[in-house]
Amino acid sequence: MFSFRSLLKDRLELVLRIGVFGTFLGHGIFALEGKQRFAEMIQSIAPVDTATATSLLFSIGIIDIVVAFWMLLKPHRLVLAYATVWAFMTALARITAGDPVWDFVERAPNWAVSLALLLYIQFRSKQRQQEKGVPVAA
User: Fold this and answer.
1) What is the largest CA-CA distance in the chain?
2) How far is CA 55 from CA 67, 70, 71, in A?
3) Is residue 113 assigned to a domain?
4) What total number of domains does the chain contain?
5) Closest to 125 (Cα-Cα) out of 4, 10, 8
6) CA–CA separation, 56 vs 50, rounded Å?
7) Does residue 34 sit within a domain?
8) What is the pLDDT of residues 60-110, one digit of tens each?
9) Crossing angle, helix 50-73 and helix 11-32, to 10 degrees?
10) Which domain holds residue 106?
11) Does residue 88 belong to any structural domain of this protein?
12) Is residue 23 a contact partner of residue 110, using CB atoms and an 8 Å limit?
């Protein structure tokens, strides 16, 4: 059961959730707005015209916003794994779109925060199992 009180007790998890939420909400809004740079990045990867890239951005924006609120309310490992891979790949897409490598480096927090939350949730799960006396695989 979701409880704000228990979430406030675990400040690290709260901060990580807010970080993932902010990353995906912000990018989702930009995608819904059809941000030109995002469309250009799609076109650098896939042979599509601007109209198609902009249409794809709308779907991507919806998915990003769903992920944002999912992370804020109740993170799930599979969604966090998706968020980590997606954020890494979109940061990497900067290089394929002709941006300097530093644009990728600058965006490391976009995927690293998702990864940190995923690892933290896995750690907490193992910790709870050990407290219950359940054997935990390494």
Assistant:
1) 57
2) 19, 23, 25
3) yes
4) 1
5) 10
6) 10
7) yes
8) 999 999 999 999 999 999 999 999 999 999 999 999 889 999 999 999 999
9) 160
10) 10-131
11) yes
12) yes
